[in-house]
Amino acid sequence: MATSNPTLRVVGLLDVLIRYPHRGFGLSELAREVGISKGTCLAIADTLVEHGFLVQHAKTRAYRLGPALITAGQAVLSGFVDLRPALGALARVTAEFDVSCSVLAVDNDQLVVLERVGNPDPTYGLSQVGARMPFAPPWGAPFVAWGRPTDIDGWLDRSLVPLSEETRSALRRALQAGRRLGFIATREIPPTHPAAVDLHRIRATAGAVDLAALRRLAAARLSEIGYFIDDLDAAATYQVNHIAVPLIGPDGRVVASLLATMFGRHVTGEEVQRIGTRLIDVAADVVARVSHHRTAPEHF
Question: What pTM, to 2 d.p., does this model score?
Answer without folding.
Answer: 0.72
